[in-house]
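#structure-requests
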Amino acid sequence: MNTVKTIHQDETTTYLQSVTAAEREAAWFYEEKFVPALFAPWSARTIATAGIEAGNRVLDIACGTGVVTRDIATITGPDSLPVGLDLSPGMLAVAHSLQPKIDWRQGDACRLPFADDGFDRVVCQFGLMFFADRVRALAEMRRVLRPAGRLAVAVWAGLEHNPGYAEKVQVLEQIAGPAAADALRAPFCLGNQDRLLEFARAAGIGDLSIETHAGEACFGDLFEFVDVDLRGWLPVMGVHLDELTIRQIHAACAPALDRYVDSQSGRITLPASAHILSGSR
């Protein structure tokens, strides 16, 4: 048993040796700011669409800091813990610190480090938009599914269905220019259902279905909603703004987004919509 445990640790925790302090700090920022506001609220819907049950062997691709993976573990049970895969060592280091018993793996969604037919269910929540080859990534999800397996892939609907972000994109375009605006448009690039279905068919996925769900994004206040993207998301996308520009964007966003702010608590709640694609081998 000790030998097996040692091998398991060597294979799955190499990211702990490579992660930098900056990567870890960025991942904690993601976990504390983005996860509760944007990602945790969608976990139950993604899991339900995949039809995950107790005892299933499940792979969560682009798991980030592991919010969906941890929720899956409460369903599959301690004898069938899921696997969470991400490319970022920082994300995985935070995921490991939050739940060390789960099998966290570093790897590329376009070249999954798993044998064929290894999982009953595969999920990917808000990751497909950023993969270099989306058809190949979907084909890899299909490859690792068992014959009766199912997958569920969540992506954000278009900006027209996420109006708070659409208005923030407009402000960025006006003040910071197209590169900053395009960085914030990126998460919504698969908002066209037909395009998403085209990718899935090209990957050979069968029994396809896609549903659009309405939800909400909730942040502590308007300042936080704007600031997390200016200081958190844009730098990830290679866009770094100076302090004067950041202040100008905050000032411009206040009147544009004030209608979403609760006058009593100061919290901001915005409509948020996503597509969830499901399919099988």
